[in-house]
Amino acid sequence: xxxxxxxxxxxxxxxxxxxxxxxxxxSDVSGxxxxxxxxxxxxxxxxLIIYEVTKRPSGVPxxxxxxxxxxxxxxxxxxxxxxxxxxxxCSSYAGSNTYVFGTGTKVTVL
Amino acid sequence: QExxxxxxxxxxxxxxxxxxxxxxxxxxxxxxxxxxxYWSWLRQHPGQGLEWIGYIHNSGSAxxxxxxxxxxTMSVDTSKNQxxxxxNSVTAADTAVYYCAxxxxxxxxxxxxxxxxxxxxx
Lengths: 110, 122
What we know:
- The complex is a heterodimer.
- By secondary structure, chain A is an all-beta fold.
- Chain A is built from no helices and 9 strands.
- In chain A, 0% of the residues lie in helices and 44% in strands.
- In chain A, strand 3 and strand 4 (47-50) form a beta hairpin.
- By secondary structure, chain B is an all-beta fold.
- Chain B starts with a strand and ends with a strand.
- At the A-B interface, strand 7 and strand 8 of A face strand 5, strand 9 and strand 10 of B.
């Protein structure tokens, strides 16, 4: 069970969009429709922002959207705002009642 | 929605057992509302990513990360609205912030505790 692969960093100017990839295998990302994404500000607990690949919990701005194609899931943050600067993690169900997380991506708002 | 709060020693000696408790407030964990929820533990090594440790259900059924399975035990105490983590034979590599979280049936971690730092050191 290996961690899902994410780019270490991504950046964009306010108002721009940034997309983060999350690459796994047929045993996790492409095998199930259970990819979720979490936002984590420094010193804080992670916060769920996407579940079941594309769904947003109540209260999460629609600037956050996500998709999946094959072994890679993606999170897009549109209309970047200063408050979006954080670490982002993907997660996937990996079969046999186990879960795996991504390596994490630090998003910087320039 | 429920709130979760971790508690336990912040310092554990090598080779000993790390024991943490998560107290759930805002609802009884034994209610039908949580029949499709699973009580989970995760951790984050300093400056690193998240790692799922395992989960336990009110029924007592559990699932653990294969990499930690030999050292992990989880339990739930519905009378106290708490669930617990025991990790034995700890080393410095187990130093991390430990989180408890609610795992929903649809396989996502919805609510998280604030996390607690556990340092393994003599």
